[in-house]
Every structure is written in structure tokens, then in C-alpha cells.
């Protein structure tokens, strides 16, 4: 059973388009995250949600809008895609998001290429 | 500000040799430290974590790391490298909640036959 799943795995699109990436976790966790990994492998948090409530928004452009319909899902919608949005986007989850030593569980990533 | 620094973006060792990946942290409060591994085209997976219970932490796949407060380090080691260890390794620090994990820039480990 896949713990954290993302769709699609690959996404190739034109500049200016709008796209969504979906994430689901079946671990029963309360907190979910979106990370962006750039071409140099640098991993940076974008958002985190706890029980459908936004708790972290790390200076991400307004073109990025996370949506959490329930605590098992956290989707990422991107408007007006730009070349610089090309990256690998990882979804992750953790039990509560509150305990400092908690492990985060990562999905396989969505490779986005904007042409 | 809290951060982690991984020395060496690329480390290459021979199969059977010692693996040493370096991580230094900067934190004004007691840190919680993690090592994650990313295999090609996959997401990150926890190798081990330091939560103040013991300074020498053993993880999966024969890896271990030692927390040294005096050196502000949390280096990752493995006595004998396997070809399957080839991956990207990330050191990370958390100091206030699980939501506030900061990742290092990663070290790519290559294994020579």
C-alpha cells in the first residue's frame, strides 16, 4: 500500500497554463506538506496544513494555492505557470506536525517541466 | 537562524569502503536532527533521527550518526559501502515543531565498483 501518493508523476506544460497536482496519504496523519526541489536538489518547504488548516506559507507566490478538502488530501494548484516553476514537487505528511521529532513521510514526487 | 550545512555536494567511495557524509548544524536551541535518503526518482525516506535519547543513533541499512554538541555535528557513517547505497542524502534540523524542518543542500553518494 502506498502511504503518500501523488498524481501525476510527470507534468509537461506550456508557460501561462494552470495545472494541479494531487496528493493523498493513507497514514491517518493530521499534517501534510508541499515541498519544492529545484534542479540543484535544494529542498524547501512551501506549505503545510494541519487538519485542513494552513499553518505554514513560506513566501510562495500567490500563483500557488494549496487546497485541502480533507485531512487525507492536499492538492496544489498553480496558475500562470512560469519557467522557474520547473522543479520536482514533493508532498509529505506527519502524525501531528507538532512534535519536533516527528518523521515526515514523502510521496514519490511530481516532476514539472514548464516550456 | 537555524540551519544545516552539508560539506561536499558529491562524495565517491569504493564498494566496501567507509562512508562518511558530513553535516553541521547551527541552532540556538537543542536541535532534533535527521538524515533522509533519496534514491533516484523517488521521494525522501528517513534513515535515522536524533531526539536527545542517545548521541549515537543507528538507522536503517547499516547507517549510523553521532551527535556531537561540542562540534555542532551530526555526521553520517557506514562501515562498508554497498552499490545500493548510491543516492542523495539530506541532513535536516527541526527545532520547534515537525512543521519546521530545514533541509541541507544534499550530498550525492556514488559507489565505485
Termini Cα gap of chain B: 41 Å
Helices and strands of chain A: which structural class? mainly beta
Number of strands of chain A: 11
* Overall average pLDDT of chain A: 91
Low-confidence stretches of chain B: none
The number of distinct helices of chain B, counting runs of at least 4 residues, comes to 0
Which percent band covers the strand fraction of chain A?
over 45%
From the alpha carbons, calculate the radius of gyration of chain A and give it in angstroms: 13 Å
Cα Rg of chain B:
13 Å
How would you sum up the global shape of chain A? Answer: globular
The overall pLDDT average of chain B reads 91
C-alpha termini separation of chain A: 34 Å
Main beta sheet of chain B: 6 strands, mixed
Order of helices and strands of chain B: EEEEEEEEEEE
Helical proportion of chain A, percent range: under 10%
Quaternary state, please? Answer: heterodimer
Q: Helical element count of chain A?
A: 0
Order of helices and strands of chain A: EEEEEEEEEEE
Described by the principal axes of the CA atoms, the overall outline of chain B is globular
Q: Which chain pair shows the most residues in contact? A: A-B, 31 and 26 residues
Could you characterize the architecture of this molecule?
The complex is a heterodimer of chains A (115) and B (113). Chain A is 0% helix and 55% strand. Chain A contains no helices and eleven strands. In chain A, the strands form two sheets. In chain A, strands 2, 4, 5, 6, 9, 10 and 11 form a seven-stranded mixed sheet that branches. In chain A, strands 1-3-8-7 form a four-stranded antiparallel sheet, with no helix packed on it. Chain A starts with a strand and ends with a strand. With 113 residues, chain B is mainly beta. Helices cover 0% and strands 56% of the residues of chain B. In chain B, the strands form two sheets. In chain B, strands 2, 4, 5, 9, 10 and 11 form a six-stranded mixed sheet that branches. A five-stranded antiparallel sheet of chain B has the order 1-3-8-7-6, with no helix packed on it. Chain B is globular, with a radius of gyration of 13 Å. Chain A binds chain B through residues 4, 31, 33, 40-45, 48, 50, 55-56, 90, 92, 94-109, and chain B through 32, 34, 36, 38, 41-46, 49, 51, 88, 90, 94-101, 103, 105-106, 108.
